[in-house]
Amino acid sequence: MMKIFPIMVCAAALLLTGCGGDDAESQALQEMPTKVKAMKVLTTNAPLTLSYSGQVVDRDEMKVQSKVNGSVVEKYVTGGQEVVKGQKLFKIDDRQYQAAVLQAEANLAKSKTALAKERVNLGRNEELWQSHAISEQTLADQRAAVESQESEVEANAAMLQKAKDDLADTIVYAPMSGRLGIDDVPVGTLATAGSTALATIGLVDPVYVQFAVSEQEYLRLSKGGREAEANGSPEPDFKISLTLADGSRYPYNGQFAEYDRTMGNETGTLTIRTIFKNPEGLLVPGMYARVEIDGLKISNAMLVPERALQQLLGETMVIVAQPDNTSAIKKITLGEKIGSYYIVKSGLKPDDMIIVEGLTVLRAGMPLEVTQVTEKDMDFSFNPGEKIFNVESGANK
Question: Is this structure's pTM higher than 0.70?
């Protein structure tokens, strides 16, 4: 047994020596620099495209109502039809209104006859008074009778005009040009004056497209408008376009039309309406479309590529190649996404070298073999499909 002990010691020594050799080899491998590609933080006047979910709404919409009570006895149009202002839409049962006109005409004729009689009596009394055959009071009473009958004639004339107006109002005309909804009532519907909606009519050319913007985006748009005005331009440099649900681009550009007067307390957004031509009637109220506003610029924006970003515990970080060719980790705050890039609000300096390829492990102090590249080398762009990402809300707009 004593002879075996030195052999065991030697074996143990060899094992320890072997392990030590593996540690040295591993350490040597770890100290080998990692090949990476890095580019300087991009500082430029960045083009910004804002994108929103918009909805088409009527520019003007009106409920068509009857001015008189009665049953609908005839329809001159069908739902969804385009009409012009003054076009016949419905007819209300007019029998009672025809009778009212005849009665008012008879009452007016009767009052006119009575007025003629009182005027004859006034003429005779004036002659008698001249000859002192009647008193002055009798003459005054007759003059009052004539005036009273004149008022009766005027009242009956007004009643006749109202009856004629009511009869005319049994025909319901289009109050504006536009397209009818398909909610028009059927024949036989009992219409109550000023209450029953017989149809809905709205303008289809042009139409509004409505969407909501954040406070920051509203300030950007307002600033762009003020700058255009200061430069003598009648319109901002924005281009407002639509992409429809099938992915096709709408052929007409829009213009800003209306801003809501207050920010929404719950949403923190402001509602904006843009106006678009719609000669073919392609845009239908209620339809959704993506609104894109091009032409904005962010001056001296500091940008980093999206692929350089790493997330850890809710924080955004990048790996920076330091002057001594070692890695460093920096926490950053992001703004909008512009193409392949994100705007950096804080955490970087303009001369920082951001690693964009070759190192995905968040470790500081690693030796690096850095190859400097440009955005063209990496095929980064300002115009990919997804143009805007709201980092603060964490959701696509």
Answer: no
